[in-house]
Amino acid sequence: MTPTPANRAQAQDLLDFIDASPSPWHAVQTCETRLLAAGYRRLQEAERWQLQAGDRCYVVRGGSSIIAFIVGHAPAVDVGLRLIGAHTDSPGLRLKPKPAEDAAGMVRLGVEVYGGPILATFADRDLSLAGRVNVRTATGFATQLIRFDSPLLRLPNLAIHMNREVNESGLKFNKQTELPLILGVSEDGTRAEARFRQPIADALGVAPEDLLTWELNAYDTQKGSLWGADSEFVANSQLDNLASCHAALSALLATTAPAATALCAFFDHEEVGSESAVGAGGSFLQDVLGRLAGSTGLDGEDQRRVLARSFFISADMAHAWHPNFPAAYEPCHRVLVNAGPVIKSNANQRYSTDAQTAARFMAICQRAGVPCQQYAHRTDLGCGSTIGPILAARLGIPAVDVGSPMWAMHSIRESAGVLDHGYMIAALSAAFGD
Length: 434
Description:
The protein is of the alpha/beta class. Helix content is 28%, strand content 27%. It folds into two domains: 5-90 and 237-432, Aminopeptidase; 92-220, Aminopeptidase i, Domain 2.
């Protein structure tokens, strides 16, 4: 099936969403911009909440996790909640607290590996910096987001003349000694740290010595693109998992007056285990659900009745069958790009799916008029996981893990299908009305 102009418009909106979100903090800012434009109201965790049916609100924790919801018009004890979860972070390279060093006349920046990126894909790319910086003020400090649009950094490859086996043995980097990113040439009389601080200070309009701390990641400045003979594919960084955030947010924004409260929860730190104040392993979602219940006068007994009638969808990308590497896949579970959302199952509970929740999501896809597929990992390969099992365990509600099929997961440049993104938006929209 050839994508329609409407399909490509959805895909382009996804690419624009990702291009505006080069860090988890920018991803939350991008979500917030869209929510405010749609009339949503920001709540503060430190203030008292007063909610009623039809309210459209969101709350941010730590700058990198966000929960948005519409309060349903039907009693929650009768219909439960409809929840969709995803994550704002992606694997990559994060700057160390004191990254700058002089290496024989070159300034390079030390990095830590965040999560499990395909490190070789970071070589020879036009990289820059994005994230947040804490700046000294008269009363303490202020946090500011920053991104450099033009290439600022690079990880040059070693020439093949000095690495003759690279095509046979693969490109490998020592994480400590060979991953630091080149920033520039040392200037006479200028320390490497000053060379690093100056462009950040200039961008923020502050003195270099007023830069206190930072959380900055390297990102690829190349914009997302449509590709393929019929422009049926998308390519960009962070499709895992900003594509799921975009699909869920699009579904929420298209939802008008749901019977059950419709909620999207996007968490940071999934790629490193989720155990943080802003991760799915923290209290963020439980706190929000408790306050939603409290604002409508539900006691502990009723809150448990609500959860028993609820349904949670963990939306994270899925591994598409790669025609060049057929041996990497389970023979009966080869999911295809542009063939529909994928239900992910694992007997060892790396995914939250069971037979009943899989059947429920199949029914949702049928109502939405979209195809769906099923995926299981090869038994002799380690299987990744998601926020699904974490939140299903903490909330005690039925849950399913789904995702759009993609290639090159955890590469700096990933690919997926134009049709699949539209299918996922349609399915998640139907889930909010389930």
